[in-house]
Every structure is written in C-alpha cells, then in structure tokens.
Amino acid sequence: MKTSSLAIAVALTLAACGNANSSKAQDGVFAEPTERQAPTDATTMKQSFSPVVREAAPAVVNISARSIQRVQADPFFQFFGGGIPRERVAESAGSGVIVRSDGIVVTNNHVIQGAQQIRVVLNDRREFPAEIILADERSDIAVLQLQGVTEQLPVLAIDDREEQEVGDLVLAIGNPFGVGQTVTNGIISALNRTETGISDSGSFIQTDAAINPGNSGGALVDMDGDLIGINTAIFSRSGSSAGVGFAVPASMVRRVVDSALGGESMVVRPWLGVKGESVTAAIARSLGLSRPQGLIVTELYQGGPGDRAGLREGDVITAIDGAEVNDQSGLNFRVGTKSPNEVAAVTVVRDGRTQTINARVQTLPGDAKGDGLLIQDGPFSGAEIAALNPALADRLGGDPFATGLLITSVQRGSYAARAGLRPGDLVREVNGRAVTSPQALARLGASEVTIERQGRRLTGVLR
C-alpha cells in the first residue's frame, strides 16, 4: 500500500460484492441500461428510488465476525512470574452482498480478517454461519459461502461493463454504525481514482453517497439495480462520511469471485512487465502531446509480456482495452482485472502517432512463496533470507522490478534481531558490493551492510 498525505485521512470501511447467480447473471445477460436523462422539473426530482431498492436490498446482508485475540501480560508482572497472557474476544461488523443464489457472499477482507466465527444476517432476518472461500488482502475483498442454505437466495447481478459516467445516480446499501440496513443516494463523483493511499493497484469509483463505518462490504448500485462497486473506504478526518467515498469497481470484484469459484486459493494477478511514470505538463510539452496524459514507459522487464509485444521505453501508454490510464496504479489495476494469458489492447503514443499493441499478459515470474535460507551463523544469524523475484515482490506489495536479497523473517532474540534487522528489509550491498545469493551471506563475517527499508537506504556494520 502506498503512503500519501491522503492516506492519513482515509478511514477504511471496506466492502465487496460478487458474481450474481440470478438467471440474468448465470446466462451472461445483464439488464439493459436505461437512457440517461437528467431531472427536468420538480416532479421528476421527487420521483422515488424505491423500485431499485426493492430489487437490490434483499441481496445486501449484515456480517458479524468474531475472533480470539491473545493479549500479552504486563511485563512488570511477567518479571515476577505472573501475568499469564489472556485471551479476549474481538468483534467486527460490516456488510456484504449475495452474488449467487446458493449462498456465495462478497464482503471486505478487513471485515472478516482473523475471524474464527462468521455469521451473516439477511434482510429478512434469517441467519447463517459462513466460511471463507477466498480472502484477497490486496483488493480487500473476501468471498464467503453460507452454510445450511436450502433454497435460492436473492442476488445482485454484477455489472462489470464500466459504462458509468461522472454524474450518474447511485445508491449505497449497507449497515452503517450497526443500526440496520440503510440506503443512501448520491452520484458518481469521479472514476478511476488511484492516488487515494488505499492500494497500489486500485482504481476506485468515487461517490458522494453517504458511506460510514459499517458500510464496508456493502453495495454501490446503479439505477438498473445492478452492482457496480463495493463500498470500501471513506475520505474523512472525523471517521464519518464527508461526501467522499470510494468503491472497488465491479470488474475487480468479479475477478476475485471468479478466482474463488474456480477453486483458486489466491488471486493470481498477471502483469505487463512495464514500469513507468505519469506524464506531467513538462513531459507532455517535450513529447508534443496536446495535454498531460498517460504513463511514459521508463523500464521494460526483459522477456516480459510488454517486451515481447513490442513496447518500447519512451512509449506513452494512454489506455488499456479502451480504459484511460494515467499512472502506475491505474495500469496495475487494468491489467490485474484480466486473467493470465488474456490479450490486453495497449494504446500507446509513439513518435507522435497513436497505435494499439496487443500484449498477452502473464503471471509474474519466480516463486511467490519466498521460501528462504535460515542463516545459522555470522552477523545474519537468525534471519531467513530469500532471493527477491517479481512474483515474491508483488505478493509482498513491493516493486516487481526490484532485485536483491529479502529478509523474510527474523527469529526473536537472535543476533539479527538484536542488530535491528527486520522482515521486509532488502540487503542491497555488503562491503560495497551486491550479494546475489543467501548462501553468500551465510559465509560472511563482520561486514558493512547496506539495507533498503521503506525506500530509505541504511548502512551499518554487523559483527
């Protein structure tokens, strides 16, 4: 997750939705969109949203999750042999959406994270226990299966066509503050919001429909009664709605649900193998662009999908499959909604001309598990070290282009721990030279070591 000034003010209220199993969702057919028409007089302004609510609300549920947390005893009492660690029950509440009639529910990962017991309450007050099928921390979306369902449940169809426009009317349905199901209305304030501090691969729908704590996992619904997003966060300094809420688009929700229903244990995100920076006004002028737009390619992963497709450094990527891209997060999101081996239509500006290059996206190379070597002796004793690769870096939320040796864990009380080494540190240099293997570190004695931590380089001597 990226850090920004906005992140300080973002209070996460995560939400989710999924893959509807109503007849129109099962058959791959979606409701025909109605023609957009702005209110023209006082009479049309007074028209009710109740027909949309009647269709959508029954599929929105309340979720309560209970976990057992181990609380460490006070060190003062531990010193005298007392203060046994105790356990406490922690509860969280949020919302969710039924997306398949046999009880498949989507919610936010943070609502159910660490839960040992999950209960789901339907709009008609029926209750079901639930089990987690797949939890994706990166998108903050989790997919649940209700237990004991004996009849078809109401569902919401996922509309992932992304045909929404700024100004479209929307409804937010959820359980704010635990008061019970609540409906609020507003408009889409913005699309493709990336610089939110929420995720490095998110592109959010922004809405002014009131979203508050407890709305996490609730539905953002259009006027056709279809799910277009999962309400996931608010921008607020008070913790309550300030008219700026963010929803995960339905395209990403569908990607997570499809992964869960396909039997996958995690969401496998493909990549393009492209690194770039946003086009500023100065860069646009130097390239002869009419306005600042797109992402200028600064690095290509050798042999990666973009490299093989013919992309070049200096190309300006302006869209993926026709959807505008203006930064690295937007590119990561667009590619991440696709399945491995799918073709992405990449629109680029090269030498002043616009062209489309078809690139077949692939999974990131390398071992994402990151099994490392536990160092037994020397200055790195007690640290587990793994050679960084794109798949591992991506899983940890880092830069897939990064190289080096990653400290994956540090044993408590070990020399490495006492020296201040931490999981997530990158070993960049030893005695002024790059080290390429964990085995090389295991053979070292006293050394001057340079590590990278949260973007900063630190140098010290380990003896």
Total number of strands: 27
Largest sheet: 6 strands, antiparallel, barrel
C-alpha Rg, in Å?
A: 25 Å
Residue-averaged pLDDT, rounded?
83
Distance between the ends: 34 Å
Give an overview of the whole structure.
Mean pLDDT is 83; it is low at 1-31. The longest helix has 12 residues, at 250-261. A hairpin with a 3-residue loop joins strand 3 (86-100) and strand 4 (104-108). It is built from 13 helices and 27 strands. A 6-stranded antiparallel β-barrel has the order 8-9-10-13-12-11. By secondary structure, it is α+β, with helices and mostly antiparallel strands. Helices cover 17% and strands 36% of the residues.
List the helices and strands and how they pair.
Elements: H1 5-9, E1 10-12, H2 23-26, H3 42-45, H4 50-56, E2 60-71, H5 75-79, E3 86-100, E4 104-108, H6 109-112, E5 117-121, E6 127-136, E7 141-146, E8 169-174, E9 182-193, E10 204-207, E11 219-221, E12 227-235, E13 245-249, H7 250-261, E14 270-271, E15 274-278, H8 281-287, E16 295-300, H9 305-309, E17 316-320, E18 323-324, H10 328-336, E19 343-350, E20 353-360, E21 362-363, E22 373-374, E23 383-387, H11 390-395, E24 405-410, H12 415-418, E25 426-430, H13 438-442, E26 447-453, E27 456-462
Antiparallel strand pairs: 1-12, 2-3, 2-5, 3-4, 4-7, 5-6, 6-7, 8-9, 8-11, 9-10, 10-13, 11-12, 12-13, 14-21, 15-16, 16-17, 17-18, 17-19, 19-20, 22-23, 23-24, 24-25, 25-26, 26-27
